[in-house]
Amino acid sequence: MEIDLEKIKKLAKEKDEENWRFRNFLKGRDSKEIDSLVHKLYQKISKEIDCKKCGNCCKTLSPTFDKKDIEKLSKHLKISPGRFEKQYLIRDKDLGKLKIKEEPCPFLKDKICTVEKWKPQECREYPYLHKKDFTSRLTKVIDNYSVCPIVFNVYEYLKDRLLSHQDFNDFDVNEDFDDFG
To answer: Which domain of life, per UniProt (predicted)?
Structure first.
C-alpha cells in the first residue's frame, strides 16, 4: 500500500497513459460489478489510511459550496453568508459554482479540518468512492489519483486484479482482499 504523497505524484505522471487505457477498459464493464468491487476496496483501504494524517485534498483541491453549505458554515463562523462568500469563495468560471478561493483550504490547520462538523458536502463525500456509478466518474478518479492515497491504492488494486483476469466474467467480486497491502 502506497501512502507517500511524493511517490504517488511521481507514479501518477508515469502511469498517466496506463490509467487512461484502464479507464477505457472499465467503461466496457458492468457498472454494478465495478461499483461492488470499488466499494469493498474503499472500505478496506480507507480503514488502513488515516485521512487526518494526510490532508492532501485540503491542501490541493478547492471544494465547491452550495447555498446550504454557505449558510451552515457562515452561521458557525458567526458571519453573514455574504461576508463568508466575499472572504472565502470565488466563482469557478468553468463550473459556475462557488469554491474556496485559496489553497490550502483556510480551514485546514496542522492537517486537521477546523470546521469538520460544518464542512461542505463535497468535502464530506470525498473521495467519492462510496458512491454509485464509479465508471461514470473515471475522469475525476484519474484527477484524484495523484491527490489521494486512497484513490491511488483503489485504482492500482483494480488494475492489478482486473487486468490479471483475462475473462472478466470469471472475476469474483466477493473475493477476499486480505492479500492486498
So the answer is: Bacteria
